[in-house]
Amino acid sequence: MHPQTTLVIQQAISAWSAQIKRTEQLFSALSDEQLMQEVSPGRNRGIYLLGHLAAVHDLMLPLLGFGARHYAQLDEQFLSNPDDASKPMPALDVLREYWTASNARLADHINQLPAEAWLDRHTAVSPEDFEKEPHRNRLNVLLSRTNHVSSHHGQLLFLKK
Amino acid sequence: MHPQTTLVIQQAISAWSAQIKRTEQLFSALSDEQLMQEVSPGRNRGIYLLGHLAAVHDLMLPLLGFGARHYAQLDEQFLSNPDDASKPMPALDVLREYWTASNARLADHINQLPAEAWLDRHTAVSPEDFEKEPHRNRLNVLLSRTNHVSSHHGQLLFLKK
User: Distance between CA atoms of A62 and A138, rounded to whole angstroms?
Assistant: First the structure.
């Protein structure tokens, strides 16, 4: 692979890692009590966004061809449905662990992936479609999820005093 | 430039454009009245984030070597200081215009820039430092500002009914 391509891919990975790091720091700094609050009146609670991000990042494992996911039990509550304070939630320390573990698994795979493999298709696109649309590669998933976590990070900041 | 490098750079540009588009659509959908509200109690008002994003994107012109900026008068109120409802604000239609015009100017330059020029240093890094840190290029500014606008987009969503 051309060194310039490797450089650009590394920059995209660094941007991902930076957003993960600051979001992990934010969740660590927020108390359980703060995470039970809505980020804004009538909006998602912190606990919902924690479960949501854990589920989305867990789902990145199969999407990037990194292996099976671990927390499919989160989907119903944290992906398919909006936050619902009338329903019981998993314990916060469990969700905190899922979030951290999902990011750690991704980091392991990301650090080991050869640069050229970022240009391979992700698993949600067929080989036929990928031939016509070569941008639907692993890197696109990474760029898109980086913006996703940035967006929720901006919202979670409102839980800080 | 290697076609793979060009592809990867185009993907980063597409991610930027997608975030700009959805944030422009959101600002267009928000009424002046909604933009005068705080995105969350005690947090920035929509009008502040509009001026803030216009100023940050205007500043990208010199940072990316695309020419002089246009709205240095925004800095004091929208970059150096937090939102202050006790101070008079520029008119909303003026800020809306600055925001749209800044993005349009950037798009013009971005669309014309040869792919290899994304790997040149941005203007806030010295040639000496850039030699040691080749990732401090134009592309890094783009990746970083994409996440910045994503973060504020997530907050501005709370102004919608």
Answer: 11
What residues pair up with A45 in beta bridges, in sequence order? Answer: A38
Cβ-based contacts of A15 with chain B (< 8 Å): 143-144, 147
Which pLDDT does position B39 carry in this prediction?
98
End-to-end alpha carbon distance in chain B? 47
* Distance (Å) of CA A144 to CA A65, A136, A156, B23, B139: 16, 11, 19, 15, 16
The reply to whether residue A139 touches residue B1, judged by beta carbons under 8 angstroms, is no
Closest CA to A75 of A62, A64, A66, A65: A62
CB A35, CB A47: distance < 8 Å: yes
- Looking at the complex, does the CB of residue A89 fall below 8 Å from at least one CB of chain B? no
Specify whether the CB–CB gap between A89 and A47 falls below 8 A.
yes
Site from B21, B132, B147 to mutate, A interface, most A CB atoms within 10 angstroms: B147
ipTM above 0.90, yes or no: yes
Does position A161 have pLDDT exceeding 90, yes or no?
no
The answer, for A145 touching chain B at a CB cutoff of 8 Å, is no
Crossing angle between the packed helical segments B92-112 and B3-29, to the nearest 10 degrees: 170
CB A144 to CB B15 under 8 A? yes
Q: How many CA atoms lie within 13 A of A89 on its CB side?
A: 24
Query: What are the 10-residue block averages of pLDDT along chain B, 161 residues in total?
Result: 95 98 98 98 97 98 97 97 96 98 98 96 95 96 98 98 84
Distance from CA of A144 to the nearest CA of B (A): 7
Are B140 and A11 a contacting pair at CB < 8 A? Answer: yes
